[in-house]
Model the fold of this input.
Amino acid sequence: MRLVQDELDAQKMLEPYVANVRHRQVELREMLAVSASQPKPQSVSETLVVLNKMAAEVGIPNMQFVPDATSVVGRSDIRLVGRGDGASDNFRRFVLALSDQPWVVKIEEVKGFSNEELHSFELTLRASYGKKGGE
Done:
C-alpha cells in the first residue's frame, strides 16, 4: 500500500511539470504548422513588403529589411539584412515561416541580442524575385 501512495504522491508532485510539457508541445505543434506560402515577389520592393508583412503577422511589427545592392551582381537573387525587436518565440515563428517560402533561397545568418527589456534580432537571407530570379 505504501508503494501505491508513494506513486500517487510522485504523480501529484509532477503534475504541474507534465502540464507545462504538454502546453509546450501544443505551442511547438502550432509553431511547426506549415505556414501559407507567399507568391514569389516580382520586385525588390515587393519582396520587402512581403517580408515585413510576414514579420508583422507573427508579432514582429518593427522588422525592417535592407537590400544589399551589390549582392545581385552575377546572381539571380538578392541578399537582405533584416533587424527587429520582439519575443524570441515570435522570431522563431518568423524563421520557420521564411523556411516555408520557396523564393527564400537561403537563410545565411541569424543573430540574437538580449537585455532585460528587449530582444533584438538580425537575419541575413537571400531571396529570389521576378519571373526567373532577379529578372
Remarks:
- The radius of gyration is 21 Å.
- The longest helix spans residues 2-32.
- The chain has a mean pLDDT of 85.
- Residues 1-33 form one domain.
